[in-house]
Design brief:
Elements lengths: L10 H11 L4 E4 L5 E3 H17 L7 E5 L4 H12 L3 E4 L6 H11 L3 E4 L4 H5 L8 E4 L7 H7 L15 E6 L9 E5 H15 L6 E4 L6 H14 L2 E4 L5 H7 L5 E4 L1 H8 L14 E4 L6 H11 L4 E2 L2 E2 L3 E2 L1
Parallel strand pairs: 1-10, 3-4, 3-5, 5-6, 9-10, 9-11, 11-12, 12-13
Antiparallel strand pairs: 1-2, 7-8, 14-15
Helix pairs in contact: 1-8, 2-3, 2-6, 7-8, 10-11
Length: 315
Amino acid sequence: MTDLSVENASLFSLFEARATERAEAPFLITPYGAAHSYADMMARTARIANALTAVGLRPGDRVAVQVEKSDQALFLYLATLRAGGVFLPLNTGYTAAEVDYFLSDAEPAAVVCDPARAAAIGALDGVGGAVVLTLDAAGQGGLTEAADVASAEFRTIPRAAEDLASLCYTSGTTGRSKGAMLTHRALSSNAQTLVQAWGVTERDVLLHMLPIYHVHGLFVATNTMLLAGGAMLFHPRYDAAEAIGAIPQVTMMMGVPTYYTRLLGEKALTSELCAKMRLYISGSAPLLEETHRQFEARTGHRILERYGMTETGMN
């Protein structure tokens, strides 16, 4: 197995090393029949990276993204890293005024949004000279069209460990949201630590129902599985009934407390259903003691609760 040392290595270079080993293994599986191997991920991120550089993206440029969750949206994150850019995810619930603030503050070189929002986003003062590209919930749009005709070959842009990989805005509890500057070393180190602490391996399959516009679904889930060489069952949103149907196919699940309280409302949640499961993880908000106890009684599993922050990753 390749040495995935985080010293002096860009985040995507670590993913690329694992993808080389796991080329034909499944990486991303959607509930609608799409299945992407690690080789597929490399080819698709190459196409998107070529599309981004074709519109002028340079190493260190920010790419602001406000799109619905899809396989192509996740590939956009990875392609931004591969092209040397800085990924800026934005909550899909943000209003135009909120987006304007983030764009004015971050000064991105490119903005990717839903086609239905393109005109409104393009008219914002904060866009400045940024290129506006589109990507819808089905993974279609101007970005996809450009990527489809781009080359599936791309030499990953080298980045230093202390270069920025992502700019994530905080919740703004004590004032206006601030952009947390996350380096390649910070994200790599955090993901590698979680792989070790949680015993994640290439045999694991993660039920991914989290949004990918914040650190939980994007970094804690995705980066960790990529470093481990595992697979993700990738749903666009959380649905308790769909989770029940997916649990027999996976070994891990990450969620927020409401995911688990809603699961407890499903009669089908039993220890037999969870026989293949290895680890349930909860975060982003406190999990009630009552939920802990009820879940263990129903499934035989204790939920692992963890604490992290946008600024630090997992603590």
